[in-house]
Amino acid sequence: MDAEQARRRHQRLAAELHRHNHLYHVLDAPEISDAEYDALFRELLELETAFPELATEDSPSRRVGGAPLDAFRQARHALPMLSLDNARHQEDERDFADIREFDARIRRLLETDEPVDYLCELKLDGVAVELTYEAGRLSIGTTRGDGQTGEEITANLRTIGSIPLVLQPPCPEVLDVRGEVYIELEDFRRFNRQLEENGEPVFANPRNAAAGSLRQLDPKQTAKRPLRIFCYGIGRLDGAEVATQQQLLERMRAWGLRTNLEQTRLARGVDEVIACYRHWLGRRDHLPYEIDGVVVKVNRLDLQRRLGATTRAPRWAIAMKFPP
Predict the structure, then answer these.
(1) Could you give the 3-state DSSP secondary structure of residue 181?
(2) In whole angstroms, what is the distance from residue 105 CA to residue 88 CA?
(3) With bands split at pLDDT 50, 70 and 90, how would you rate the model's confidence at 115?
(4) What is the rounded CA–CA span in Å between residue 163 and residue 6?
(5) Are 49 and 61 in contact, with CB atoms under 8 Å apart?
(6) Does the annotation count 220 as an active-site position?
(7) Nearest 5°: CA angle at 229, between 284 and 320?
(8) Is 70 exceeded by the pLDDT of residue 193?
(9) Which of 290, 293, 295 is nearest to 280 (CA)?
(10) What is the pLDDT of residue 55?
(11) Which domains does the chain have, with CATH numbers?
């Protein structure tokens, strides 16, 4: 096989592997067995061994990790990753003052007496990251850090199967995706058992395990950890028009990003928001991952822009935290 034949075969293999990765990790609808996927992956690795120039940054081979780093460099977010204001834990009707005050403030700023549409999303107890895609390819990934600057952990994020290295077209020219990296409870228990059997210290909870996994200087170690992601928001978005937060989650899924759409609820007014909070408070123990509340966002993006943000948090969103 000459170099041109190898390039064409590698291109077809990479596209096929990216597609099957999307089907498995994002849509939960695999079309081939693990053995068949592994065979395609081995062929790709063999081609890259014979023709090293084929091992580009967006190759599926990056899933196994690259060379260890000496340290993480700092990277500045193009748009700040703000934190969220919190509504105190609610026990009964009298304790929902914070969310009612939030809703009243939103309607006052928007100069309306009509109920506002909110999107209620689960607040995962994980690690916030930002993924930047340029021309549909993952170019850099960072931790949230202080909201202005984070640690560049691209090599580690590339090893997470549910993070696409290449977006599904048509996609934006530039896209900053915000998401939460986490570990499911059963995976966490299994991982801790392995550590214990190896005589290594175990992690106190899934969030600590996820954070420690992302900060490995050797990406091959991160690749061994059962990390997943749910994407929930954006920074920059060039080349696409989106009207609502709900539509944004739908579009992100169409681009190949994993979102938690099935567990989001559209709420008309504050009473429906409170009902959604109560729904998930009673069902949190039935989920395969840990959540610590519900995030409430004004659904229309044009209204989000009108409301703006303080130096610390957006005015159009609030976190309704669960009791410990």
Answers:
(1) strand
(2) 16
(3) very high
(4) 26
(5) no
(6) no
(7) 40
(8) yes
(9) 293
(10) 86
(11) 3-62 (1.10.287.610), 121-321 (3.30.470.30)
DSSP track, 186-213: HHHHHHHHHHHHTTPPPPSSHHHHHHHH
What does the pLDDT average to over 270-286?
95
Structure tokens at 70: 């000496």
| pLDDT value, residue 67 | 61
Residues comprising the chain, all counted: 324
- Type of residue at 56: T
Strands (E), the chain: 74-76, 86-87, 117-124, 127-134, 137-143, 149-151, 174-182, 228-238, 265-268, 291-298, 317-321
> In Å, how far are 87, 129, 177, 194, 195 from 253, measured between CA atoms?
29, 17, 12, 33, 34
CB 300 within 8 A of CB 244: yes
Two tokens, residue 229: 């992601």
- Residue 170, preceding bond cis, omega within 30 degrees? yes
Instruction: Compute the average pLDDT of residues 279-298.
Output: 95
With vertex at residue 30, the alpha carbon angle to CA 27 and CA 34, rounded to the nearest 5 degrees, is 135
- Write b or e for each residue in 207-218: b if 16 or more Cβ atoms lie within 10 A of its Cβ, otherwise e: bebbeebbebee
| 279/287 Cα distance (integer angstroms) | 12
pLDDT at position 60 is 84
Q: What is the pTM of this model?
A: 0.85
CA dist 4 and 176 (Å) reads 34
Confidence of residue 276 (pLDDT cuts 50, 70, 90): very high
Q: Catalytic one among 123, 224, 297, 321?
A: 123
Instruction: Say what angle helices 97-110 and 270-283 make with each other, to 10 degrees.
Output: 140
The span from the first CA to the last CA of the chain, in angstroms, equals 61
Closest alpha carbon to 227 in 156, 148, 136, 318: 156
Q: Going by C-beta distance under 8 Å and a sequence separation of 6 or more, which residues neighbour residue 77?
A: 130, 142, 147, 148, 149, 150, 176, 235
Cα 162 to Cα 27: distance, rounded to the nearest angstrom: 10
Would you call 149 helix, strand, or coil by DSSP?
A: strand
Give the SS3 label for residue 290.
coil
Element (H, E) at 156: helix 154-157
